[in-house]
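dumping this here before i forget
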Amino acid sequence: MPVKPPTFRPQGQRSRRQANVEYDAKRGSARQRGYSPRWDKAAYVYKGLHPFCVGCKAVGRLVASEVVDHIIPHKGDQKLMWDEQNWQPACRFHHDVVKQKLEVMFAQGDVSAADLHLNSAIAVELTRDLVPELRHPPGVQNP
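structure:
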C-alpha cells in the first residue's frame, strides 16, 4: 500500500493541525465562551423568526439558517453577545467560511464593522468568488 511521504517542516515549525489544536485549547469550549443553554434557546427562537441565511438571500438563494452569527465578534463581552442587533442568521457555509474571511480582514483593518454583515457588498463578492455557480460569465452584469 502506498505511503504518503513525510512533510518537510523546519525545526520548531508547527503543522496547521497542531496550531489549530493549540488555538482551540486557549479559547476554551463553547460553554466557557458563554454559549449556555440560555443561548441555545435564544438562538433557536431567533432562527425561527429569521429562517433564511442573510448571506444566501443576498446572492439570490434561499438556504435555511443554521447558526446565529454575531456580526461584530463579542470576544467574551456579554453585552455585545446578547445584543440582538448584533445577530444575523447564517448557514454553515457563510458562518464558517465567508464570515471567517471577513473577520480576518476586519482584524487587519481592511474592512469596516459594517462589512461584517453577510449581505454587505464585500461579503457578496466573497460569496460569489467562493461559489463557482454564482459567478457570472464575462459581459453579464451582476443582478
